[in-house]
Sequence to fold (399 residues):
Amino acid sequence: MIQPPPAQNEYRGQWVQLLVLTAAHFVLDCFPGLMHTVLPAFQELFGLSVAAGAVLLTVFLISANGIQIAIGHIRPKKDRPLFLYAGFLFVCAIALFAVVPQNSLTLLWLCLIAIICGAGVGITHPEALRAIHRLDNISSAVSSSVFMAGGVAGFAFGGWISTYLYAAYGLRCLMPFCIASVIVLGVILIIRVRLAVEEPQSKSRQSHSEESSPSFWLIIAIATLIAGSMTVFAWIIPQHVRQLGVDLTEGGLAVSVLSVAGGIGAVVMSRWAHRVSEFRMVRWMLAAGIPFIIAYLFWIPHRWALGLLFTGGFFCFGVYPILVSIARSCEGANLGHRMGWVVGGVWLIACVFPMILGPIAKHVGTGPIVFCIPVGFVLSLLLITVNQRKESNLRSNAS
Fold:
C-alpha cells in the first residue's frame, strides 16, 4: 500500500485542526447568537424594558470583547491553549439564568451571569486565532475565512434554533449549548491543539498581494464600523420584528440569514481576495452589498426580502473575516494582541451602540433605528476609498 508523502499528511492534519477549531468557534458563537435573538423573550420573562434588555446585552458583549484586549497579548511564548480550555467551561454559566429570581435584583444577577458567560466566549478567541496562525500550510485568507465562517454560522444557528427551543422548553433551551461546549472541549484536548509562537516580523508574516500592507489601526477602524452595523442589526431587527407583531422566530431567522451569508461570502471570496488584493476586494464587496442591505430595510415584513438580506450579508459581512486575515500580517504589537483587537476590540466598541440607541428606540420606536444599520458599511467604504486614493496619489507623486 502506497503511503502519502509526509507533506501531504501534514497538510491533511492541519485541515483537521482547522475544521475542529472552526467547529469550536461555531459552538462558542452560538451563545452571542442566542443572547441577541432570545433577548425579547428574556425581557418578557424577567419583566425588563427594552432599555434594560439593551443593558444586559451590552454587558455580555463588553465582557466577551473587552477581555480579548486584556488577555490577547498574554502568554505569547506559550503554545498550550489554557484560555481556550477555560472558555468552554465559563460559557456554561449561562445555564444559571434558570435560577435567577424575579425581584429588584433580577437585572444585576443576569448581568453577573452574562459577564462570566461573555468572558468565556471572549478568552477563547485570541488563542484560537493563534492556533489558526500555526497552520502554515493553509493560506492566511482561507484559514481565517473558514475559521471566522464557523463563528458567524454558530451565531446564526444559535440565534435561530434558540428561538424554537425557547418556545418549546423555556430557559431549559440553554442546556444543549452548554453540553455541546463540553463535548468540543474534549475533542480539542484529544487532538492536542497548539498555539503559534510568533517569530520576528520579517520571518513570520505572510505576504499580501498588495504592494504594502495597510495600517493596522486603519483595519481596526474599518472592522469596527462593520461590527457596529452588524451589532445594531442583530439587536434591533428582533426587537423591530417583535413590535410589528411578527413571531419571535422571524427575527432570529433574519439575524441567521445575515450571519450565514457573511460566512459563505467570506469563504467564497477569500480565494479571489488572496489573488487580487484583499484590501481591494473588501472595497468591491462593500460597494456591491450596501444597496441590498438598504433595500431589505424597506421590505422587512416580507419573507422574500430575506433574499435581499442574504445578498447584502454575503458581501457586506463577508468582508470581516478578510479584514481579520489582513490584520494577521499587519505591523503592530504581537499576534495575540492584534487578534485580540480585531476580534474583540472592534466588537467591544460596537457593542456600545445598542446602549446608546436603546433609550432613543424607547421614545421613537424601532422603525427609525433600523435605518442606522447601513451607516457603518457606508462609512467603511468611504474610509477605504479615501485611503486608496491617498495611496494612489503617493505612488503617482513618487514616480
